[in-house]
Amino acid sequence: MEVMDKEKWPLTPTATTILDVNKSHASHYIARWNGAEKYQVTGACQDQHVVDVRNNTCTCRKWELLGNPCKHFIETLYEMNKKSEDVSDSYILVNKVYWLDTWKNAYSYKVEPIKGRIIWPKSLCPTTLIPPIHHKQTSRFTHGGINPSDEATSRILQKGEKPNVISLVTFTN
């Protein structure tokens, strides 16, 4: 609770950091208005997405999945500000999960301490749960090191054993 009381923004520290990173990355994009409620946002390396301002969606889907406005939507907000349109702050568009008020409500309740395990009452349930039987997994067959092709035929010869080498003999007339 002390950390939440020290925050000056309405968002959690993690959400604020993510939003700041997205704001810095948004400067690498260009948003173009289509004349209605959609913007085409393009960036380097053929990175291109469509932002729908009315439905608050982007084709990258990071906003829908994570709850924070993506860099494409933030660039769209910057473009709308240039046109002096009525635009809200980007932190208002963050999902309510990341707001400090939500966290304060969730953590406002106290967890009562409990007694030790020795003092717990014994269970009257007639069945006892036993752990499952442990089965040792079979090990995988491991191969020794693979020799290079020229050493594949070499081996240590026993005493008195001759090497099995085929030699080419050429005859001349």
From TrEMBL:
SWIM-type domain segment(s): 39-81
Keyword Metal-binding: yes
Organism from which the protein derives: Lactuca sativa (Garden lettuce)
InterPro entries: Znf_PMZ, Znf_SWIM
PANTHER family on file: MULE TRANSPOSASE DOMAIN-CONTAINING PROTEIN (PTHR31973:SF190), POLYPROTEIN, PUTATIVE-RELATED (PTHR31973)
One GO MF term: zinc ion binding
Presence of keyword Nucleotide-binding: no
Keywords: Metal-binding, Zinc, Zinc-finger
Domain of life: Eukaryota
Protein name as catalogued: SWIM-type domain-containing protein
Pfam annotation, one family: SWIM
